Amino acid sequence: YTVVSPYYWSFDYGPAHIAVVDQYTDGLAGTISAAQLTWLESDLAASVKEWKFIVLHAPGWTGSTRITAQVQTAIQPLCETYGVAMVLAGHEHFYTRCGVNGVKHITTGGGGAPLDSPSMGYPYVEAIAGVTHYCAVDIVGSTLYFKAVGSTGTVLDTFTIVHGPADTTPP
């Protein structure tokens, strides 16, 4: 568990490394500071975990216009360089899955606030749902299983990511 400040940190959990960054360190600016980006690159480079994730507030790609360009211009290149599998964001009150150059960008903001309506009409959008939901990630060896589940138990979306040979026993 590496705490850099009360606003950004990282930790390992099983085969996963999770880096949490704060886009609001300068009030409500919505940007990640240069110091935080430098730390994030060093943190991702130092991790030997097979599965890497970044958690932040505002997405770079989603089912609406409310995106943060810095995720596209600064975070996405780090994801591609250091093998980040998934970026998890909130901000929008719905579910969206976007796939960008092998990185899944998940917007999971469907719990607790009035829901917004996502649209498939935005770049890289692969799946949407404007419902209250949660997301679950299971990792079995070299295979990651993801599902988004609505509050009624309905499975909204699933996908897998495989690093190397697939494990044939899903969770």
Q: Major β-sheet, in short?
A: 8 strands, mixed
Pattern of helices and strands: EEEHEHEEEEEEE
Low-confidence stretches: none
Structural class: alpha/beta
Distance between the termini: 27 Å
Based on CA inertia axes, which overall geometry fits? globular
Q: How many β strands by DSSP?
A: 11
Q: Portion of residues in helices?
A: 10-25%
Please, how many helices? 2
Strand content: 35-45%
Mean pLDDT: 91
Any overview of this molecule?
The chain has 171 residues and is of the alpha/beta class. It is 16% helix and 39% strand. It is globular and about 40 Å long.
Tell me briefly what this model is.
With 171 residues, the chain is α/β, with parallel strands linked by helices.
